[in-house]
Structure formats: structure tokens, C-alpha cells
Amino acid sequence: MTDHTADSEPADPELTEAEVSEQKAVRLGKRERLIASGAQAYPVELAITDTIPAVRARFGDLEADAATGATVGVAGRVVHLRNTGKLCFASLQSGDGSRIQAMVSLAEVGEASLEEWKELVDLGDHVFVSGEVISSRRGELSILAKEWRIAAKAIRPLPNLHSELNEETRVRQRYLDLIARPAARANVRARAAVNASLRATFTAHDYLEVETPMLQTMHGGASARPFVTHSNAFDTELYLRIAPELFLKRAVVGGLERVYEINRNFRNEGADSTHSPEFAMLEAYQAYGNYNQMAELTQELVQNAALAVSGSHVVTWADGTEYDLGGEWDWLSMYESLSEASGIPITPETSKDELQDLADRLELEVQHPTAGKLVEELWEHFVKSKLERPTFVADFPVETSPLVRDHRSKPGVVEKWDLYVRGFELATGYSELVDPIIQRERFVEQAALAAKGDVEAMRLDEEFLTALEHGMPPSGGMGMGIDRLLMAITGLGIRETILFPLVK
């Protein structure tokens, strides 16, 4: 059996394991024949002089049936193969999806080399060709090979590049998705452009990029369930970080007045279209700032990222919908918008019993309910789905925001906003709590909740309090999910924005 005909197409995406095994056996035999002939199936060096995109850029306007006199050596993956007597054709694809035709002819390479091409080259192989750049009679840019070599022998067949991969394959075998689907490659480039844009914006505002621990002796900086591990070297229990906040604040205490970090967080919680247990997070802190300035910075970060990917503040999502990230974004008060949407006056003084009664009537289940948690759940029920434009939702309950400063003029709330885009929370910003005495009180309250079984409650962190007692200047802080930022710009689900998402 052979896995290409005279005009080969990629393997069917629904091949059975037995069929894959059969094709794999054929390809392994070709690998052995290559090695037995003295050639290499995976050479360490090739005489590459150009990339496929560079050749296309240089000769892309070549007229049909023309020669250039220029010799190049390129390598790419074989994604189409047609063998016809004295002349064989292959489409070679580079990593960015650019393709060029390779023409292997009896006149140029000789009978033995041509027969080896027909016998040994399969779809999916990486192949090196060296020869003159020409244009075929149909006007297709080509390389008329004078020599060729296998650059890497593919042992398994490719999926059908003319059929869409199912989501399971795209996520579990992202490398196939990258080979087969231009959108998958575009997503990776979009993410790189976003990260570069974020760093450029921070640099323009004199921020320093720093790195903080991912393994921590005490988890903190957010309300979330951590992953737990064990250090053999220190014989102690450690936690994968749920947020970098408490270490970034230590940096501000130390005099690094504007700092940010882009790195991974880990939360041992559910996974859905907007949540992943492992995700990329941006956090930033600015001495002598507050939540208003952090909102301005966040809007600039997002809008610059949209420009970097789309060339406009109006982005086009994967389903063709346009979404406007431009202009000045809306602001809402959590309590005022909740009162208006529910038709019931709700303030920081509204009792827990009243809030619980309303939640019960709406059949809302709230784990470890407090007045603050009930307000937030009720707000999500009544208001969240109605937000269309990018919106800062401000002034949260004190008890759900243990690291945030009390509002300067509104009793019972803190200076915190959450940014909602596309109906999900994209970012959050604080006027940071820097008073170590009040911070200790908040930690004690959180510890009491933890003792009652709230696994997301924060722990009392003495080392952080010690740092805070050395004096942290008034500061603003913000955090934003990088994956969610890509979701806002591209319209994709979170598993499509992460190159290799965690799957069960």
C-alpha cells in the first residue's frame, strides 16, 4: 500500500486507527529505505538560502511561463502532491501558510532521483528543494528543482486539508490546526501582536516589567481556589499562584513605582467558554495613582491592542460581527444600576436577609452568601446581560473586595471597577488598600470566612502585611486576562485564544 496516488490528497480526517497504523507502517518503511540508501530522514543541516514568503515577495509578480535565472534553496511541508510521469509537482507550505510549487522533472534531476521522489515523498513530509525560480504555464510561482532532499519524514498522515477539523482535534492536536487552518495561525499572531502592544504601551508610561513567583507558600491576591503541590526540597506545601498581586505590591513598597507582569495564573475551578484553569494574566500597579487613572490606562491598553491586531478600534469577530472598542467607555454604579434594573432600592445598607429573600425569589444559589456576594450575584442577574458597549462597573461592596481602599465619599463601597466587554468581565481596577491596619482587619474577616468553609476566601498573609507596614504609597492597580482580551478582539472562545489549552 502507498498513501499517495498520482494526484494525492491529504488523509481523511476520519481515518480509523487501523488505517493510520497501516499508513504509518508504509511511511516507516520509506524511512528505513532512506537510511539504508545513505540519505538522512532528519538531516541536521540543509542548504537553505531563502524562505517561501521571501521568494513570493521577491517574485510574486512574475508573468506566466517565465524564468528568472535566480536559484534558491527553500524548505517546506508537502501539502499537495501530484506525480505524472516525467514531471512531479508538490505544494510546499511554510510556517506562516505561504506556499510555493516545487517541480521535480526527469530533465533536471535525472531518472534515479525522480523515482526516489515518487517512492519516498509523502504528504506531510518536510522537503528541501533547490533550483531556479520560474512561473508555470498557468502562472503559478514555482521552483524547478535541480536537487531535493527529505528534510523531515512524517510518519503519520495529515488530516484532509480541504475539510474543516472538528473542535476536539483543533484543541487536542493544535499542531494540526496550525498546519491546516489559516485562522489558527492568525490567532497566534494576533496574540503576539497584543502582547507586543501591551508592552509598548507600558513602556510609553515608564512601567517596568517584572516577574514574581508562581510557586507560593501562601496563595493570595484574589478570591479563588488554588492548586496545591509539594516541594520535596523544602518539604512544604506550596500553591500555584492565583494572582501576582501581593508580590507586585511588595515591589511598589520597595520603590518600583510603576510595575507590571504578564504571566500565568492557575485557579482550581471550573472551565467553560470564558474560564480556563491555567490562563495568562496582566497586572499593573502605579504609585500615586488610583482607580480612575487605571481605568484610563486600561482603555488605552485595550484600544492600542485592537489597533495592533485589526488596524482599527472597530474589530471584526470570527462570526463577522463588528464591535466598537473606540471612544470613551461607559461607567455604571453597581448599586444604582442594580436598583434601577430590579425596581427595588438596593444600597450598601440593605440587609443580608432582604437580599437573600430577593435571591430566593429569583432562585439564585449563592455559595457562602454575604450581603456583598448577594449584591454581586443579583447585579449579574439583572444587569450584566444588558451591557453592550465596553463598560466600567464601579463601586463594589466592601466585604467582597478585601484588597481595595474604601470609597473616598460613598460609605459601604470600595474604589473598584470591573470592565465588561462582550458580556464578560475583561479587567478589574482598584484604588489599592495600603493601610496595613485595615488590611489586617480585612484578612482576619477573610480567614473567618475560610474557617466556615469558603475555599475561595483569602488567608492572613503575615509576610505581605510586614511589607505593607514599611509603607506603600497610595496606588492604583489593574488586572486583565490576556486570553479574554483576545476574546474581546477576535470574538473567539477562550480555548481558541490559548495555543495549547488544558483539556480533560
Structure report:
- This protein has 504 residues and is an alpha+beta fold.
- The chain folds into two domains: 136 residues, Nucleic acid-binding proteins (OB fold (Dihydrolipoamide Acetyltransferase, E2P), Beta Barrel), CATH 2.40.50; 259 residues, Bira Bifunctional Protein, Domain 2 (BirA Bifunctional Protein, domain 2, 2-Layer Sandwich), CATH 3.30.930.10.
- The protein is 35% helix and 26% strand.
- The chain has 16 helices and 19 strands.
- An eight-stranded mixed β-sheet has the order 7-11-12-19-18-17-16-15, sandwiched between helices. The protein has a five-stranded mixed beta barrel with strand order 2-3-4-6-5. Strands 8-10-9 form a three-stranded antiparallel β-sheet, with no helix packed on it.
- The N terminus is likely disordered.
Features:
504 residues, 35% helix, alpha+beta, 16 helices, OB fold (Dihydrolipoamide Acetyltransferase, E2P)
